[in-house]
Design goal:
- This protein has a single domain, classed as Jelly Rolls.
- It is 21% helix and 23% strand.
- By secondary structure, the protein is an alpha+beta fold.
- The strands form two sheets. Strands 2, 3, 4, 5, 6, 8, 11, 13 and 14 form a nine-stranded antiparallel beta sheet that branches. A five-stranded mixed beta sheet has the order 1-10-9-12-7, with no helix packed on it.
- It is globular, with a radius of gyration of 18 Å.
Length: 271
């Protein structure tokens, strides 16, 4: 049984309120309601539907991840169900407009510092969750396969439609960005082992993060999160980018350094 994220006092136009910053520090996530620009969202939806129809660009199918509920292979029934349209940044300038939007950048500077960068090797995608063949994502931290000087990055999750427990909205474990987990609490893929009593107690504190269209979830790269299957009749679409601070360099030669980054300085747009 999970609870739901509480609504905090309204934020300023391009920044978090003190209450929201306190929540970030304590819980490792915060939701900004109605932050998405309606015109940009309309354009993003159009690009997403086109990408799904044409199956263009780099794509991750549900069958590729072998998570619970996913088709066994691309050749099985539902095997061509899309889980993620990769490289959102290259799918239309509207995604570049969003990732550098003042309402996003202003908040990220409060979390990460005056200069930020968007590593295009991670997230930089449209997440989809289809009704029939969606999979369950177990509890994990995004930092598990990322390589940076510090484990201090923030992901920005924009809901293009309604996200609810019924269609597989994100769930989060508050405060886990501040905790240390011994190897025996994780499986070989670095998911949280649900058969460990200590983990079961932690999972009992899970919070659902339902979102309305245009709501944005900011969450720390060390905050454990999960998602269920989509039990509705409509596909869910979300746009996700990750950011680092200017003092948190990528480790050379790592997967995190395999693609360029978009740099956003203190006074300028992206470069």
């Amino acid at each position: 049984m999970t609870t739901t994220v509480a609504t905090l006092p309204a934020q300023t136009a391009d920044g978090f309120s003190p209450e929201e910053l306190d929540q970030w520090d304590r819980q490792g996530f915060v939701i900004s309601r109605g932050l998405g620009d309606s015109s940009l969202m309309q354009d993003m939806r159009r690009e997403v539907l086109q990408g799904l129809e044409q199956l263009s660009g780099l794509i991750e199918f549900e069958a590729d991840v072998h998570y619970p509920g996913a088709p066994a292979s691309r050749e099985a029934e539902g095997g061509r169900t899309v889980r993620r349209l990769k490289q959102a940044h290259s799918r239309g300038f509207v995604f570049t407009e969003w990732l550098q939007h003042p309402s996003v950048v202003g908040r990220l500077r409060q979390l990460l510092g005056p200069t930020i960068a968007c590593p295009l090797a991670h997230h930089n995608c449209i997440m989809t969750k289809s009704p029939r063949f969606s999979s369950r994502t177990a509890w994990h931290q995004d930092i598990r396969y990322w390589s940076f000087v510090k484990p201090e990055l923030a992901s920005v999750w924009l809901a293009l439609g309604h996200e609810t427990p019924e269609n597989g909205c994100l769930q989060l474990l508050p405060g886990t960005h501040r905790q240390t987990f011994s190897p025996d609490r994780l499986d070989p893929e670095l998911f949280l082992r649900e058969d460990v009593p200590e983990n079961a107690e932690l999972i009992a504190t899970a919070i659902d993060a339902p979102l309305e269209p245009g709501d944005v979830l900011f969450f720390h790269c060390r905050t454990f999160h999960a998602a269920g299957v989509n039990a509705t009749s409509q596909t869910k679409h979300s746009v996700v980018f990750t950011y680092r601070g200017g003092d948190n360099a990528v480790i050379p030669g790592s997967r995190s350094a395999s693609l360029p980054e978009m740099l956003i300085s203190a006074n300028d747009g992206p470069s």
